From TrEMBL:
<keyword id="KW-0732">Signal</keyword>
<keyword id="KW-0624">Polysaccharide degradation</keyword>
<feature type="domain" description="Pectate lyase">
    <location>
        <begin position="44"/>
        <end position="256"/>
    </location>
</feature>
<dbReference type="InterPro" id="IPR045032">
    <property type="entry name" value="PEL"/>
</dbReference>
<keyword id="KW-0119">Carbohydrate metabolism</keyword>
<dbReference type="GO" id="GO:0000272">
    <property type="term" value="P:polysaccharide catabolic process"/>
</dbReference>
<comment type="similarity">
    <text>Belongs to the polysaccharide lyase 1 family.</text>
</comment>
<protein>
    <submittedName>
        <fullName>Pectin lyase-like protein</fullName>
    </submittedName>
</protein>
<dbReference type="InterPro" id="IPR002022">
    <property type="entry name" value="Pec_lyase"/>
</dbReference>
<dbReference type="InterPro" id="IPR012334">
    <property type="entry name" value="Pectin_lyas_fold"/>
</dbReference>
<dbReference type="InterPro" id="IPR011050">
    <property type="entry name" value="Pectin_lyase_fold/virulence"/>
</dbReference>
<keyword id="KW-0456">Lyase</keyword>
<feature type="signal peptide">
    <location>
        <begin position="1"/>
        <end position="17"/>
    </location>
</feature>
<keyword id="KW-0964">Secreted</keyword>
<dbReference type="GO" id="GO:0030570">
    <property type="term" value="F:pectate lyase activity"/>
</dbReference>
<dbReference type="Pfam" id="PF00544">
    <property type="entry name" value="Pectate_lyase_4"/>
</dbReference>
<dbReference type="GO" id="GO:0005576">
    <property type="term" value="C:extracellular region"/>
</dbReference>
Amino acid sequence: MFARFSALAILVALVSASAIDKRAAPVNQMVGYATLNGGTTGGAGGPTTTVTTLAALRAAITGATPKIVQISGIITGDGDTIDIGNHTTVVGIGSNSGVTGGGFRKGTNVILRNLQLSKSPAPTDLIELQTSTNIWVDHNTFTSDLTHDKDFYDGQLDMNHGTDFVTVSWNVFQQHFKCSLVGGSDNTGDEDSGHLRVTYHHNHFLEINSRTPSLRFGTAHIYSNYFDNVLASAIDSRDGAQVLVEDNQFTNVVDPIETTLNGGFAVQRSNVFTNTTLEATIAAGTLTTVPYTYTADAASSVASIVVASAGAGIVTGL
Ligand SMILES: *[C@@H]1O[C@H](CO)[C@@H](O)[C@H](O)[C@H]1NC(C)=O
Ligand SMILES: *[C@@H]1O[C@H](CO)[C@@H](O)[C@H](O)[C@H]1NC(C)=O
């Protein structure tokens, strides 16, 4: 009798656990391309340094050995890039730590989390990944403005020169013209084809003009994001890029999935389009499965989930 009851209790527990797993994607877990190619560990195992000045930040994030750098408060940049050494975690403390007026660049095996990043005048992007592999950009808030000219700022999160195995999750990208450019030019197919594999999930794109993302040559899995007032063009697949776009909410979005203007491909399924007209013609892509497991939230629940759990201040500390 006792044995049967405990077997039943275990069965009930297993059934309810799997029901919960199906209902909601985990908010605090790495998923997607950054988990491949050996995985992304950032500075795990290395020493932790807390910085409050630009000079201390620059010094702390260089070098090729593992290191964890905590930023306390908002550091004002000098407009130039802040280059990241390999095997680095940069994390903001609390809900209002990060960098304004400058941006991060480079690095392999890097984690950037819980940062407020804002207003870096061109040509410095808020984050520019160059020849970078295994990168996790998670729970950050990127903020600019739409009052300057469209070229005053450059990108919020750009990737080029063969960057690969990137996950961009639970971020807020807001008030910006050119959000995320993957593949810097039409002439870089030699270094970018077969690379630029990126997962975008559970991000909130709020009042963005374009490039959420714009992708050349690469492969992007774009699921359970909230596209919320995109003014000119959202996902732009070009130069043979393949994108799988699923379980997203598009609200007030102009040109949600562009392929035909620029020679890219897309598969779209299970998306919800509100006040948004899907393009009449989408060049059919081949990316229908991805080489990792993931839990997508249904498009109809994505807006409330993402508004509650994306951006800095949600996953604090390490
Ligand atoms: C950082 O990683 C890249 C890619 O693996 C490598 O080419 C580069 O030499 C590394 N840099 C250092 C300083 O170890
Ligand atoms: C859809 O567009 C109309 C007209 O511009 C606007 O009044 C309404 O608020 C929009 N709906 C949503 C969900 O944004």
